[in-house]
Amino acid sequence: LQFGPTEDLQKYPKTLDDDLRLAEQCGVAAVFVPEVSEFTSPGLSTQVTESVFSAALCGTHRPGHFSGVTTIVSKLFLTIQPTHAYFGLKDAQQFLVLKKMVQDLNFPVEMIGIPTVRESSGLALSSRNRYLSDHEKRIAPEIYKALVRARDQILSGATIDKVLSEEKMRLEGSGFRVQYLELRSLDTFEIIQQMDSDKTGSFSRSQALLAFAGYLGTTRLIDNVIF
Q1: Side-chain-facing half-sphere of 61: CA atoms under 13 Å
Q2: How far apart are CA 90 and CA 58, in angstroms?
Q3: What is the pLDDT of residue 196?
Q4: Neighbours of 156 (CB within 10 A)
Q5: What DSSP designation does 117 have?
Q6: Which runs of E-coded beta strand occur in the chain?
Q7: How far apart are the two ends of the chain, measured CA to CA in Å?
Q8: Dist CA 180 CA 163 (whole Å)
Q9: What are phi and psi of 181, to 5 degrees?
């Protein structure tokens, strides 16, 4: 349900054997691995939809994606009934959507965001990285460099629109097709257009999300920094 009709479900990397080995090394006692046919059906006519955090960014470029995410994860939570759920913050928007779903629907689950794991180059780890050619993998770390530069300039008081425009142009000059590069509030998910003068030129921790999505060749990559 998370994949649109033109998206890469069929070729998306499936690493179950590797995942099971890692889980075993970590002392995992049991793994829930349903078949798609067991977890969804062609007659599925009920979906869970979140309307604030899912409305922008990837929600704009991937219609229906987040209703697929919330529906499948709600089914997962109802089936397993976990006390805690851990999600990587590389997809911070997904985490915020699911955290709001849990809050609104009273799921007895504590949502925990895990910091993004990166290669030494700064490139965020992702299943989709294996799609990249050697040449593209050398370019891909420019995403994180752009995010860090933009964050530092914004915290120094630079004009947000100007900074984001310059970094977007720099990324496109490196070969990316940028879908978005935006600064949004973690609380409301509204676009942040200027610094809050009451905060003496600095954001409190976890107040802002600077998010990127775009294509490098045929591979769609996302990343963000939270500050």
Answers
A1: 15
A2: 13
A3: 65
A4: 11
A5: P
A6: 84-88, 110-114, 176-185, 208-216, 219-226
A7: 31
A8: 14
A9: -145, 100
Question: What integer pLDDT is reported at residue 205 of this predicted model?
Answer: 45
Encoded amino acid at 164, one letter: L
The answer to whether the predicted template modeling score (pTM) of the entire model surpasses 0.85 is yes
Tokens for 136, please give them.
């593209």
State the Cα–Cα distance between residues 216 and 123, nearest whole angstrom: 13
d(CA 74, CA 40): 12
Q: In the structure encoding, which two tokens stand for residue 89, read together?
A: 């913050």
- Judged by phi (left if over 0) then psi (alpha if -120 to 50, else beta), residue 64 lies in left
CB-based contact 161:194 (threshold 8 Å)? no
- SS3 label, residue 36: helix
Long-range contacts of 45-48 (CB under 8 A, 24+ apart): 46/71, 47/1, 47/71, 48/74, 48/101, 48/105
State the residue for tokens 């009709």: 5
Q: Residue holding tokens 């928007």?
A: 93
Q: What is the pLDDT of residue 201?
A: 45
Instruction: Give, as one character, the DSSP assignment of residue 81.
Output: -
pLDDT along the chain (227 residues), means of 10: 74 87 96 87 89 95 93 95 97 97 98 97 94 97 98 95 98 98 94 69 65 97 96
> Please, what's the b/e burial string for 47-80 (b: 16 or more CB within 10 A of its CB; e: otherwise)?
ebebeebbebbbbeebeebbbbbbbbbbbebeee
